[in-house]
Design goal:
Layout: H1 5-8, H2 52-65, E1 69-73, H3 76-84, E2 92-96, H4 101-110, E3 117-121, H5 126-131, E4 137-143, H6 155-164, E5 168-172, H7 177-180, E6 190-194, E7 208-212, H8 215-228, H9 234-245, H10 247-266, E8 273-275, H11 285-291, E9 298-302, H12 306-313, E10 320-321, E11 331-333, H13 345-350, E12 357-361, H14 367-378, E13 390-391
Parallel strand pairs: 2-3, 2-4, 4-5, 5-6, 8-13, 10-11
Antiparallel strand pairs: 1-7, 6-7, 8-9, 9-12, 11-12
Bound molecules: pyridoxal-5'-phosphate (PLP).
Residues 75-77, 100, 102, 143, 147, 172, 174, 194, 196-197, 206, 208, 325 line the site of pyridoxal-5'-phosphate.
Cofactor: pyridoxal 5'-phosphate
Keywords: Amino-acid biosynthesis, Lyase, Methionine biosynthesis, Pyridoxal phosphate
GO molecular function, one term: cysteine-S-conjugate beta-lyase activity
Amino acid sequence: MSYSLDTLLLHNRFKHDKQTGAVNVPVYNTSTFHQFDVDSFGKYDYSRSGNPTREALEELIALLEGGSKGFAFSSGMAAISTAFLLLSQGDHVLISEDVYGGTYRIITEVLSRYGVSHTFVDMTNLEEVEQNIRPNTKVFYVETPSNPLLKVTNIRAVCELAKSAHALTFVDNTFLTPLYQKPIELGADIVLHSATKFLAGHSDVTAGLAIVKDEELAQKVGFLQNSFGAILGPQDCSLVLRGLKTLHVRLEHSSRNAEKIACYLQQHPKIKDIYYPGLPSHPGYETQHNQAKSAGAVLSFTLESENALRQFLAHIQLPVFAVSLGAVESILSYPAKMSHAAMSQAEREKRGISNALLRLSVGLENADDLIADFEHALTYVEEVVISKKGVN
Ligand SMILES: *Cc1c(COP(=O)(O)O)cnc(C)c1O
């Protein structure tokens, strides 16, 4: 019998421990494993190479993403960086121009030192993507919806371009999770996650995951995971496993809240632009609707100026003002000074990440309470928007 993903979160191979019946995966706090036979070692030998708690998380995420194998890392950046180690000197990467700040940093400041070049493109513009393919392009790197401007890339179309160029497609699926978007089904080769965000969901752990499409990639990424060694410890694996059990209810509630808040912000005279692919007037709405089950729980918006933003921030009370997203509590972030601080002001402006932009990750509070909090804080904003651009 095949179950839907929400049921699979609870009823899977790990729902009870085979030896004891425990209803959670035991935390195997061990670095090494006794070998019972000098000639044939057991399945596990050393926890960097394999640990049963980590293995449960890795199998579960592979099942959810529809991949052949999953790998757990100590952070989203560890997962992303390890996947990039598939590249060699002389290779080229085509990458979304508004990727996560940490991904921007590793590609521009680290991989460049190892002879891996890159071109930033607007992945939503397929012509631009095609024009920038080089003979040595080996990876197309996609983040959709993108961070922080929620641009929507057509995953299937980019994967087809990549295939014709004999390159791999990596998709950062942090914002939607496999419950809402399944990049491997759309043609992607590797799916990457900051499990710190929605998958774990409680702002209590830093973790990353990579899921690969086939056995050949599984061999390569497994070798790199063990070589580089940025694995997730068993206690943190257990926290992510616990978070996953409630992923479905958390995402659904947060996304419904996000939709309500986006509609509220869209009509507010002190909000200039709103970025949320769940609004029918968003340019990526159609694509989002075709490739994902929901627009998710993250949205961004701008006020008239940085000054207006500061007045708003001084009075908003419910959301945490912090880096990160995808948690039970709503989180308001200031990309220019937080997630995208690694980017110069000129680079940020080129990408539309202005000093008047805020990103909201909507949590599990009551939507009306959140809206009332926004309404109250916005009364302190002096500047009404002069030319309302509306939806982006
Ligand atoms: C947070 C984040 C990352 C990095 O993950 P860490 O767990 O912080 O290392 C990568 N991609 C996206 C989209 C993120 O939001």
